[in-house]
Every structure is written in structure tokens, then in C-alpha cells.
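User: Assemble these into one structure.

Assistant: Restating your components, then the assembled model:
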Amino acid sequence: MGDALLCVRGLKVGFPTVDGVVKASNAVDLTIQAGETLALLGETGSGKTVLGMAILRLLQPNTRIEGEILYRGRDLLSLPQEEMQKIRGREIAVVLQNSGTSLNPVLRVGDQIAEAITLHRGLKGAEAEAAAVELLERVRIADPARMAREYPHRFSGGMRERALIALALACSPSFLIADEPTRGLDAVTKHEILALFSEINRGRSVLFITHDIEAAATLATRVAVMYAGEIVEIGPVDAVLSSPAHPYTRGLLESLPARGMRPIPGSAPSLIAPPSGCRFFPRCSCSVGRCETEHPGLVPVGPGHCARCMLYD
Amino acid sequence: MIDVCDLKTYYSTGFLCRTEVRAVDGVSFGIKKGETLGLVGESGCGKTTLGRSLLRLIEPTGGRVVFDGTNITALSRKDLRRFRPRMQMIFQDAYASLNPRMRVRESITEPLRIHGLEDRAGIGRRVRELIEMVGLNEEHLNRRPYELSGGQNQRVVLARVLALEPEFIVADEPTAGLDVSVQAQILTLFRDLGRDYHTACLYISHDLGVVRAMSDRVAVMLKGRIVEIGPTADVLDRPCHSYTRRLVAASSADRGFSRPAPCPALPGSPVMVEVQSGHWVEAAAR
Amino acid sequence: MPGRNAALYLSLGVVLVYCAVALFAPVIAPFDPFVISGPPLAPPDAAHLLGTNDLAQDIFSRLIWGTRATLILGFLGAVVSVVMGTTVGIVAGYYGGRIDEAVMRFLDVMMTIPFFPLLLVLTIFLRPGIYVTAVIMGLLGGLGSVRIIRSQVLSLAVADFVVGTKALGARDGYIMARHILPNVLPLVGVKFVTSAQHFMLVGIGLGFLGMGDPNVVDWGQMIERASKNGGIVLGLWWWLIPPGLAVTGISLALAWFAYACEERINPRFQVMRV
């Protein structure tokens, strides 16, 4: 683990709610090397966004977090706020999910990007504005000088996504967390965004959170599949997607329209009271007796490829 | 079953300087009973407007829609209401399609009550039939939309729409925003039910993989016009129009299949040309 | 959350107490508010808890009877205001187009006329009784709520579930009553409470300016009488202050109630996306 840029150990995240504690993350271990793109693949409720946000400590104040998140050897969870603020944006940046409020609707787009530049690069006024326009140009927004003076509602979905990427890259971070950059985009725009992404992040470490298998296949070198708050399979992207070891990964691939559209029966378990034993057991078609009672650990199934399944234990 | 002739829907915006947006600009096609026509195109090409114009949820500006022999564009609102149960729509956001204050049971009985079709006992039976058909159970009946997941809500919407046994359904991206495994469940359900009931369907989506799996024929829309239409395999494997080729190339699931067939380049105003039996392309859009 | 619930029940309790006092006034009040029951301008004693006024009427009884006028003005006015505002707001927002524009232009003109002076002018000319005053207040005050309700209806009218119900073949009236109205009710409820509070205060103002209904006991009139007949100069605090305190009490209770309600009405259904 010599030059691992980010090392997550035993991360547990819980949200106290009226109905009980939602255990969004269950002792997750993850490592990202310098310069690699790791895709965190999962569906709604798998805990992938929580994991991404936990790294930058962007979760709500009443969240219970345990474990370690080591960035270049420093534990981010134990840093004081001022130190954390220096890291956010400059060393580690986030491309937030493209929702209606990911950009401030009452500020011009150029101003919002310039804000990030002023904060970390110390440029002010006209210099910051010029740098913002340059960034918009890098993300291939047409007529960047004019678009920088526009408000977010004038941007289409794809353009907003590009603006969010520009915002994240304002200070050339070494590590980028991208939260669902292709959600809700149509096929052509998605293709363009993915192309932009791979070109603009050469040499950067990226944690790519997505539910889109195609996008993960295009961009990532390694992929980690999450289900019910745990990593159930992790390995090189070709290995995992062409010969998936975990039954959930297999089910996911088979439910793609192009591969037969065979649905996985049932639905994801509640994170307040997850099943003891294997969390995928209630929906699994190849379970053995032990699956119901014993909780499987991550076991190797190939070079650099592990799966959390009793079948391989 | 459905015949669309030169349908136009224009929006005028602005108070002082009225600008016209030609959302649907002269669209013609037909859908047979039991057939599913896929409609693809990027965001903003007018596919949603087209879907809603067919049902006159947005009033078309011109053209004709003939449903089972009747010109529904010419009907008065009162007469149109008689046709409503036969043609229904499924929207993209299942959560927004349901009244947040109504329980599932009320949402499903509403269509039955509006058309006065059944009595109390009959309604109860029908509701139970419907929820079984869509894969929900009794305990879901008392829930409200926010207590259910996206997939479950879309099932409720399906039950609501099927309550009146429509002959034509417009499905506007019903699984956009749903996870892949949930999408597979909903689409398989949709496909099976469509087959059982022989419903004609217009399936609107921007996902070519889904459209390939769900439709018999597919139409490609660009800036309010249909530029290519034909059997799904033909259009997606051997796309002719340049825009269709772009779409197909962008969908990685289809990568490796596109072998563009040679197309005649005709000058002049856009006109549909039949390049193969059943496969029409808009030639040389200026 | 116990804190929120306490505010809700407490304020509701206070409002209910006022309502009970108004309802049971004939039973609770020791004297008829109009008869002479002792020496004039007498300070409080055992029989007259708040003394007597210049006409030798028992102030305490008048205070109790005065609750009726204030509550009627407030609640009746609020009902009229809310019914009018909701109906017009829903129709304008749902149909849009010409109807909406016509309503909005009318509102634009009406809103430039200040509420209180207009009310004053109308009461001077018409000299209405308390019920008619309440209706007039409601009509004038309802104009403001039309805008708020209309904006919510605008977004509801294009919501998928409304379009879907139209697609099912439902009539407009049915949709407006069964789908739009229930979703607008929380807003309407809060507006009702704040309107009631507003009208009660306005009613006191009218009474103070001598525009009140002379046949009715009214806190505003009591304050006016007190200040005109030497209440301040002679230091007759028992005459001057209680009506003011009474109206402050109900006003605060209603405001607090509206605030506590708003908390509960706002969508608590925040689903966490992990």
C-alpha cells in the first residue's frame, strides 16, 4: 500500500432517524492508488453516495461515523475543520450530483466558479473571472465568455454537468470524487460527458460513483460493486464485468436490456435492520445453507479480484 | 389503431415579442393494435410534446390523430372524455404522477369511480386483481406515495392506468431515474401486460437499449420531425440518417453493430424516402 | 418533537378558552353589560372585578361580552377571506390563460388601494353592523390570499398527477375539488389563522376610531371610551388596559398557533438518498 492515495478502513456510517439508525455503510475497506479511476457501482440505497460524501466529511452533523479515511497518510476523520477546509476543493474535490440545486440558482455560473478560484488560488476579481472562463472552455462549453455571465437555469442538463466539472477542477485537485455525472442525461450527451471526463482527468485519481454500468466500463480501471452498504465485489473492470463472481453483480448485468433484461427478484433490504448473514441472501438464486446465518467476508477469486460470497469461501 | 397525420404542436412564448417554438413540426406515423412503436431522440426534440399531443393533453396546433377510425382531434372536449379510458399515459416521474395525499387504494379506485364502471364490491375485486397483476400486495394499499420506492410507485401507476383496460398507452420514459434492476422488473411487467392485453404502445425513451428490447418498430425524432422510422432491428443496426447514426454510436450497448447502409442524398426540402421495405428516412434535411 | 407539540396545544388551548368565554358570556358575566350596576368610574372591588366605566356599566362583564365581537370579526372575516381567496385562486391558477390574466389585472388594481383606509371609508358610508363588517373585511382581505394560493395552484395544475387524472377523463370541477383543493389546504389553513388574527386587530382599530357597531360591546370601543373620558388622565388602568391585554392575548395565541402549524405542515417526508 505504498503509494495508495486514499485508504478507507472499516468505515461505518449511520444516520439516526425516527425509525432507527440507518446503517448506510458497514465496515467498508477501500484503497485508491494514485492516478487510477475506481468506479463505485451501486443502486439507490447501496450506500455509494454516502461513502463519497463521507470522505470529504460533507454529511449531516448528526451522522455517526467510525473508522479511518487515510489521505496521503493523514486520517481525514480526525482533522480539525480548518485543516479539512484546506483540503476540500484544493486537494480533493467533488462533482456533485446534477440536481436542481447543485448550482446556486441566483448566482451567475462564472461567479460561482470564480468563488472556488478565489478561495484556493488566491486570484481575485478580473483574474478570477478570466480563470473561470478558461475553465469553462476546458470543459468544452461553447462561447464560454458569454455563458459565464448566464444563470444556471439557462444551462441545459449536459452544460450544467460540464459547469459542475469545471467547478470541481478549479483548483486542480489530486483526487476527484464524481457523484453520478451521467444521471438523467440522454445518450448523446452522456457519451460526450464521458469523453470529456476521461480526457480531462488524465493522471488524476478519481472515485467515480455511478449506477450506470456502461459508464463505469468506459472510464474506470477498477470497479467496486456496492450492495446494502457493503462492497460485494471489487476488481479490475474487465474481470468484474466479463466474469462477475458475486451473484448480485451477475444479476445486475443480466438485467441490462442489452443482455436479456432478466430482473433480480425482490428488492434491496432495509438498512435499519439488515439481514444477518449475507445481505443478498433473500434474493440470491445460488445460495447455500451457510448464507443465511454467516456473514461472508471478501475473499479473492482472481488476481486483484475479490467477492463477498460464501460460494468462494 | 392509431394514425397520425401531419401533427403539429407549436408553443408561443413571450408576451411582447411572441416567439414560436415548433415542438412537433409535421409528424406522421401509424401504430397497429398490439404493436409497440419506440420513439427516440435527445432531450428537447419534442418527443414528450408529441406523446401528450396524441392524447390531447396538450392541444395540437394542426394535423390529425385518428384513433380506431375516429378523428379525435376534431372531437369536442365532452366527446373526447368518452375516449379517454381507451388511451392512457404513463409519465416519467412515478412519484409526481400520484396525488401525494391519496393512498394507493384511492389512486387505483379513482379511474373506476370517475367512469362509474363498478359498484363497491366490484371495485374491491378489481383493485385486488390489479395489484396482483402489477406485483404489489394488500399491505401497499394503505400506503401513500412517499412511503413507497420509485419502482413500487411506478407499479401503482401501472395499476391505475390498466384499471380502465386502455387500448393505447403512451409511455414517456417510465423507467428513467429507476435503478437497472428495478427497471428490468418494471419493463418486463410492462411488456408482459402489453402482450396479454394487445395494447398498442408508443414508448418514448432516450435509451436505445431499452427501446430495442421493448419495441417492434422505432421512430427517431429530431427538432420536432421524425427523421427515420422502421423495424427496430433495421433502424438500430443499419441506421441511415446521420442523426440516427450519432445516436447509435453513442449507445455503447450497440457498439459494433452499426454498418451504415448507403443512402441516397437528395437535395431540397425534407421528404421521407423508403430505403428498405418499411424503413423510412428523412433525406437531406436542410 | 415535544417542544413543537407543546406550542401547538398551548396556543390552541388559549384560543379555545377565548371561544368558550365568547360562547358562554351570558353565563359567565356577572352583570348585563349595558345596565347601570353601580357607581360610575368606580375602582375594582368584590362585585365589580374591574370596576365600572363612565356609564356605570361593569367593565368585567363588558370585557367578557366583548370577546364575541372580536372573535366574530376575526373568524367570520377569515372564513369569507379564505373561501373567496381559495375559490378565485384555484380557478385562476387552474385555468390560466385569459381568466387568470383578468383576475390578476383586477387584483393589481385592487391591491393598490390600501386596505384599512378603504375599509374605513366603507364603514363610514355604510355604517354596517358587525356581521357585514366582517364580510367586507373578508372580501377585501381575501384579495391578498388569492395570489398566494394561485401560485401554488399554478404548479399543481401542471403536476403529472393532475395531467394524469385529466387523461383518465375526469371533469375539471372534480379535479379542482378532489386533487387541487386538498393539496392547497395546508396553505389555506395557515392563511385562515393569520387572517383571523389580522382582522381581530383591525376590528379593534375600527372600534377605537369610533367606527364600531354601537349595539355591540367591543374592546376597541372600550379603549376609545376609556381614553376619551379621562381614563389616562385619571389613571383608571382597570378600564384602559384589560381590553388591550385581551386582544394581545388572542393575537399572540393565534400567531403562535399558525407558527406551530406551519412546522407540521411542511413536508416532513424527506427521503434520504444514499
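Chain C touches chain A at residues 272-274 (CB under 8 Å).
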